[in-house]
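Q: What does the predicted 3D structure of Cell division protein ZapB look like?
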Amino acid sequence: MSFEVFEKLEAKVQQAIDTITLLQMEIEELKEKNNTLSQEVQDAAGRRETLVRENEQLKEEQGAWQERLRALLGKMEEV
């Protein structure tokens, strides 16, 4: 009878080991995925900063063109 108990215990231990191994593999996969996603977030943040700077530059250029147009329209009104 005790042999059967040991066999059942051994089976449960083996099942626990298998489950732990699978969970460890899943953790590693999730860590890799997390690292990949973190890198993608950093890349996106960098692209965002570039776009923000470009947008500010374009706004400044637009303002300069508007001022030029106003000056030209003012000169045309004088004529």
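A (community wiki): The structure tokens above were generated from the sequence. The mean pLDDT is 95. The first helix runs from residue 2 to 78.
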